[in-house]
Amino acid sequence: MRDNTAEKWLEKRIKKYGPISKLSLFGKPTVFLHGHAANKFIFTSDGSAIANQQTKSIQMIIGDQTLLALGGDDHRRVRNALTLFLKPESLKQYVGKMEEEIRMHLEMYWLGKKQVTVLPLMKILTFNIMCSLLFGLERGIRSEILVEGFQQMIDGIWSVPVNLPFTRYSRSLKASKRIQTMVKQLIHEKRVELKEKCASDPHQDLITCLLSLQNEDGEEELSEKEIMQNVMLVMIAGYDTSSVLITFIIRFLANEPSIYAAVLQEQEEIARSKKSGEFLTWEDLAKMKYTWRVAMETLRIVPPVFGSFRKTLKDIEYGGYLIPKGWQLFWASSMTQMDNSIYSEPTKFDPNRFENKSSVPPYCFVAFGGGTRMCPGNEFARIETLITIHYLVTRFTWKLCADNSFSRDPTPVPAQGLPVQIVQTRPL
Fold this sequence. Notes:
There is one protein chain. Helices cover 51% and strands 12% of the residues. By secondary structure, it is of the alpha+beta class. It has one domain (6-406, 413-424): CATH 1.10.630.10. It has a 5-stranded mixed β-sheet. A hairpin with a 2-residue loop joins strand 6 and strand 7 (321-323). The longest helix is centred in the middle third of the chain and has 32 residues, at 224-255.
């Protein structure tokens, strides 16, 4: 992963053993599945044959009640609760709040600078957006303590789960306990606000939204543990994946002048339709079709999530093989997204691949998952990505200061964090 040779290693396996092969990963017997048929099999399973399987390090650090770990009715219940906040109809009201965070970020970290390092700045941006919309937590000492512990927690998620002093895993476990304590305190505060009717809107942030849900008996739909762990999961997913996506869009736009020009033209047309200081609207985001195709092509070539695990709940037959109960299944998103039998010239950056949805076969583009396992936060990511790119291309130009290499740890990290020279072209 760190040498960025994982895809080549899997390609050799596929050539040698075909689209299905067995190996050992994280000390467990594992079956590696490849191809769009395998993707469909994994994402459309009803939960009776296969279920989500996370590594021990992820289970111990985040918990066992997250959307990644649950199956069946519990998965549907938690997913429906999260979707209530993350669906497009709900997110429309947060466009202005998100735009305000982005403007503030650019004023603080980009304005007046000659050079910036993109990835760490994008992580600051996505974290502040998450704090505001998920926790209802504004900038300050509390959010600074939270981000420090949060980063330590993330560092050990894909580490070897041996709890020895001074290891990444040990530090991550300790950070996780601190984060859980802080999130529990926030849940308590939001619960008090709801009971005292201080919350102006039950959808003002994710925690308040989840607390406001009740079952048929008038009790909270989700337990405190489920709320805490799934808020942490959404935080991790949005923090890492969105920051990586925006960072690599900036890199690709610097390398592709004609594509940059097309994005700039689309965004300039929208900017000209706005009065000075006027915020973007949901309708403006709907006009950013080409910009989103650029984002989709970025996700195809550099997916933030390399792959994922499942486990068999019973003996199953797939591809003419019997996979025993309890075995681990592994799939890698880039293996279909960079397949030259599916995409012509797969290494070429071509956003027009996504101009017509029917041109991409089902389950061949799985950056957001698929079926019942589709990422519920994909619309959230779309909004913050489009608003950020709008302000960057209409206010700045940039030039790369490092090569195009990147590694994975476990998400993609461009060389030196992607330092760029910037020139401001108009006021914020």
